[in-house]
Amino acid sequence: MEKLEKSLQINPENSDAWFTLAWQYTRQKNYGKSDSLYTKGIQYAQGTSYESLAWQAWIGAKIDQDSMEAAKKLAESALKTASETADGYVTRAIVYLLQQDSMKALEAGQKALELDPGNGIALKIMMQNYMAQKMYQEAINITQGISLEKQWAGMYAEIFNHKAMAYNFSGQYDSAFAVIKRVIQRSPKYAAPYSTLAESYGFTGNTAAFFNSLEQSYALGLQPDVIDWDSQPYIRYKHHAKARKLRKLYDKE
Q1: Are 163 and 179 a contacting pair, CB within 8 Å?
Q2: Model pLDDT for residues 94-110, shown as the tens digit of each residue
């Protein structure tokens, strides 16, 4: 952080450095400092390719803080300056999601992908939106031609995890297994795919593998409240002795 601060003293117009430093202060939960850095960075980023990314980062930081009202206020400002680039349309999509306008968010996400077909943030937004609306085939189709080996690889793991979930919810279990096992091979320390793998096993009735995969997910840091034991396929195993044991070990309550 000291190196970044010194570099900004030498070159205060380095927008990327402002945002990187702001993100680091956000991670330390020094929100007052990070807000001042985002504000400064956006001043220097106006009219550049960094401006949309800056707004996205700042809005994301507020969402991570559960400061939704602050995120919405920032979104209103971001919308006024959103460019006609892929990043500008990603910003619009984020803003519309905050405003709970899913159709406008989808339209903005689609436009972003027309301009940049491999944009990981746009793909993530589209995937989450489709999943929320139970548009599972659309969620599956949007990733056609996209490879886990390309750029945005970390984000693609999350995107393909959702793709496997879409396969599960649409009853295409063989495809779900194929996708989620590739994700785990690519990102073995990422907790969420193991719960998706557990769901695949749960839907297909493999009790031992269901609990084994779910326990791996918990061990890697999956938050227990992510699992809804009253939804499918978890409700099938809710009263199993192993379910009670896992919940006792990992539930915070």
Answers
A1: yes
A2: 888 888 888 888 899 99
pTM, to two decimals: 0.75
Residue 87 to residues 156, 191, 206: CA-CA distances in angstroms? Answer: 17, 28, 43
Distance, in Å, from the CA atom of 76 to the CA atom of 83, rounded to the nearest integer, reads 14
Per-residue pLDDT tens digits for 168-181: 999 999 999 999 99
Answer yes or no: are the C-beta atoms of 44 and 80 closer than 8 Å: no
Query: Rounded CA gap, 97 and 45, in Å?
Result: 24
CA distances 76 to 26, 69, 90, 96, Å, are: 21, 11, 14, 10
- Whether the per-residue pLDDT at 130 is higher than 60: the answer is yes
Q: Alpha carbon of 203 to those of 37, 95, 109: distances in Å?
A: 48, 35, 31
